[in-house]
Write a sequence for this structure.
């Protein structure tokens, strides 16, 4: 979790995996569609998170048809989270 803290990711937004893509941090089992949309639209913010480890998220099993409907959050520059629609 030290990596998350260094990237400005709050404990509420933290999860099991952290990656960096361009200038963004990606935290947790974020669906590829959300990451693609982030890179296409480049919104202001630190990056994306799918907090916790939802059992039906990418990499956790479940139905792949539902992976892209996960409640992904945009981590704002102030650390707050808002829903990221993609």
């Amino acid at each position: 979790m030290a990596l998350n803290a260094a990237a400005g990711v709050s404990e509420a937004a933290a999860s099991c995996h952290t990656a960096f893509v361009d200038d963004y941090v990606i935290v947790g089992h974020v669906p590829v569609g959300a990451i693609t949309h982030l890179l296409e639209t480049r919104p202001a913010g630190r990056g994306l998170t799918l907090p916790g480890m939802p059992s039906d998220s990418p990499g956790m099993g479940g139905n792949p048809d539902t992976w892209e409907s996960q409640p992904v959050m945009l981590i704002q520059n102030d650390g707050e989270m808002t829903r990221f629609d993609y």
